[in-house]
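S.,

Sequence below, as promised.
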Amino acid sequence: MTFEESLVLAQEADADVDFDDASLNCTYDYMDDKHHPHIVWYLDAASFYNQIQVAVNYQPVGIGLWRLGSEDPGDWKVIGTADRDALKGELEVLNYGYDLNYKGDGELISVKQTPKTGSRTIEWDRDTPLIADETIKTFPFPYTLNRYGARDKMVSLTFDDGPDSLYTPRILDILKSENVKATFFIIGINAEVNRQLVRREYQEGHELGNHTFTHPNIAQIPSSQLELELNTTQRLLESILSRSTILFRPPYDVDAEPTIPEEAAPLAVSSRLGYIALGSKIDPADYLQPGVQTIIDRTVADLDKGNVILLHDSGGRREQTVACLPGLIEAIREQGYQIVPLATLLHKTRDEVMPRLSPRERYVVWADSLSFMLGQIGIYLLHWGLMIGVLFGLGRFISYAIMAMIERWRQPVNPPAYAGPVDVIVPAYNEARVISYTVRSLLRSSKENITILVINDGSTDETSAVLRAAFPNEPRLRVIDRPNQGKWSALNHGLEVSTSDIVVTLDADTLFEPHSIEELIRPFVDPNIAASAGNAKVGNRINILTRWQALEYITTQNLDRRANALLNCITVVPGAVGAWRRSVVLSVGGFRPDTLAEDAELTVRLLKDKHKVVYADRAIAWTEAPEKTRDLFRQRFRWMFGTLQTAWKYRELLFKKGSGTLGFIALPNVFLFQVLFAFLAPLMDAAILLSGAFFLLQWSYHPTDFNSEEFQHTLFYYALFLALDLFASLIAFMLEPRREDWSLLLWMPWQRFYYRQLMYIIAIRSVLVAMKGIPVGWGHITRNATHIKGFEKLTEMEDSPLAIHRKISVWDSEQD
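The prediction came back faster than expected:
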């Protein structure tokens, strides 16, 4: 016997273990069931220690243990140890050993008793280095496991990993025709999406067991996860059938019949939760698809080894399992075996292995059902969010790319230019750091008959002083000081004092190229043109955040503006670079303060009154983009909130007869792609992330037979969406009037992991703030002037905007 078996036997026989004085060995005697006397001698750590102390006097070459695993675990503490004080404390702990204590017979197992450490006292001989006496105070307990289910000429058919929408119904049809009741061990994630099959399995008289929720290898996960897996599947089953189950089969048949304590630990968890674990001594390995007849032959050959047959109805291709089932049932019956439910092997009824919930428990089930329903809704939202997002994105990308190309190709080669005078209005509030550079870029314009009106809107810094000192005798510049009333009011004041019918507006931090004004006003030779939107570009491409913004300006804002120009539905002439027909603007009431996007509101108002707005892509202006996330958030929140205010203000035009492209394209585009899509896009990202995480989890659990088809579909649609995004970006770059920095596209893949998420958050927050009716102010954005550092060095404006922004970004930050 092993050391552990001798202790178990002593405890069961209620024997007194004695440490023999002569041999210094443990011994006890007992009477068996047939009243035969027995005497047991066994070695433990104390007697082993004594052996070592005697043996060293003969200088042995070594010490051997026979056989490993049968010894007292304390043996390893006494080898090479002579310190009595340290050793005494170690030996007084009596461990139970390495084996398991099985009782009964069968393939259904429950853990009756978990291990417990015992204790013993040690007494040392005064005259020798030996242990003189040992007394067991409490016996240790090993894992004690009860076996059930051994029945002559009876077997149970069991199916793992389902339910499956393809294979499970076919298996159920065969079982029904053969009048066979089986047991289906369900995986929670499969049962959640195939609830009707779970109901059918029960309604047709079959039993259901727990096979965890995600099919992990329970030997490799913590007990807390195993408990969560079992509880989740149990609650799901209860929410579907109002019944629970006491049957559990470990995935992969792992540790279904453990041989060491570590393997018994997971079954101890399931037993504590009230489950009987099921092993399977008859396993034809149908999951390997060895062939229909091979499955039958293997099963028949092993019928005398056990009572449970393991088959699978999901988790991979199961055509062979379905095909073999009629022949397998016939072959089993021909061998004289009866096919029975597991409950019969346990001497129980189906109601006992699948007990009905009490009325009190059903209240909890209702809550569980609601939880699973919400979870399922969440899964559907993720799935359909991805699908709808891809379809929306596909339709929008294709249509906008085509319209943008048509608009670009229809532009005349040498269009006539507007030759009349132009007033340039620059509203400024505390812009002393940048205003002189902006004015200097305007004064270098190729358009000669211009007047620059800087409306100093109550600045508290040296804005006016800087301008008067920098341009003391410049006849084309007028600096108009007025109390602070807001940008909209400053623009209106500029319109009032202007004497030209065409006015250009720009922000105080914007740099115009020499030909920008000329290109911006060129379309006004057409008297039907009311406004012209220019091509804004990011000048301070100095970090990843500003490069992402530069990419967005090119691939989203300018491409959209180009496409919308084809249908006369540009919704915003940007404040950074825009031109207006003064008489028309004044006729519709000028700029208004009721939104945070006064330029967008005025543009939509012009479209509402059937005026024409065009895109001047060669009118390039360089602007300063926020360099920090905080400033970017503030800027884009103001833009988005102002856009929503504008769209909501003119919501009555949505799909209104006679509203033209404004009501049927422009405004729906705002609500659909700037509002709804902002909520769908995070679902798309969440769907691919969760799908990928679940795929990796399942692949790590069972890499050989995991079906990745669903993940492949999700990945395909997401990759399609990204490919379309890239394709649209390539088109946007190709349509730019002059060469752009194509290296910006290298930043595009990383844009989705932070920048896009930030834009989604801003859009969602804007919608929520708007719904709550919370007042929103203009907000302050830090000016760093990094887009104009070294601007004085640019004595000539080269044709290439790429060369300009490169020169601007490389100047030392201390040069002004």
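The radius of gyration is 41 Å.

Coffee later?
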